[in-house]
Amino acid sequence: MSISLIDYLMEDGSPRVLTNQDLPDQRKLLEKFGDLFMLDNEKNREEFIKQMIKRENLGSTGIGKGYAIPHVRFHNIDNTKIGIIITNGTDYNAVDRRLIYIAMGIVSPDSGRDYITILGNISNVIKGGCLDEIMERAKVDKTIRPIELLEAISTYEKSKGIYPTKIEPLKKRWDT
Fold first, then answer.
1. Mutual orientation of helices 115-127 and 146-159 as an angle, nearest 10°?
2. CA pair distance 57, 26, nearest whole angstrom
């Protein structure tokens, strides 16, 4: 794990993180990722959503215990993007049939070499348990802030010897 998820989440200078989202089903959640990743082009957004649904039809990316990792390769982007959406509970067709509260999405160009590494890093963050408290709070607390999620991931990454470069300026901006 040598790629910082924080740096990918902060690629454009502000976090690609949405919290407290009312998204009752899988399609609504995937549409929200379309908004998050494809803000500039409605045609690309619709095509992206179709690709995500096609990917889900191969097998659910709802990995269980309240988490999903929707991911797809998409030809109309230049570099890999990560986004996180915290929901108030989404019926996602997860493998354990539980609701999803944290979805960590990935979209990568067809030639993206970092795609598998990032997918593995997200899996490690989830297995490492650093988001479990936030996920449990998401079930009842509608005031979770993006910085809380970013700090939890940053702390986990630092414990693994990865030092994100893009979180400190954000923390200063939010602390003022």
1. 100
2. 11
Which helix (H) or strand (E) segment holds residue 134: the answer is: helix 132-138
CATH 3.20.20.120: does it fit domain 5-175? no
Q: What are the tokens at 103?
A: 């979805």
pLDDT band per the 50, 70, 90 thresholds, residue 41 = confident
62-95: pLDDT as tens digits: 999 999 999 999 988 888 999 999 999 999 999 9
As a whole number of angstroms, the distance between CA 112 and CA 80 comes to 7
Closest CA to 102 of 120, 123, 74: 123
CA proximity to 134, closest of 118, 120, 153, 162: 153
Is residue 168 very low, low, confident or very high in pLDDT (cuts 50, 70, 90)? low
Q: Check residue 38 and give its pLDDT.
A: 75
Written as one string, the DSSP assignment of 83-109 is: EEEEEEEEB---TT-PPEEEEEEEEE-
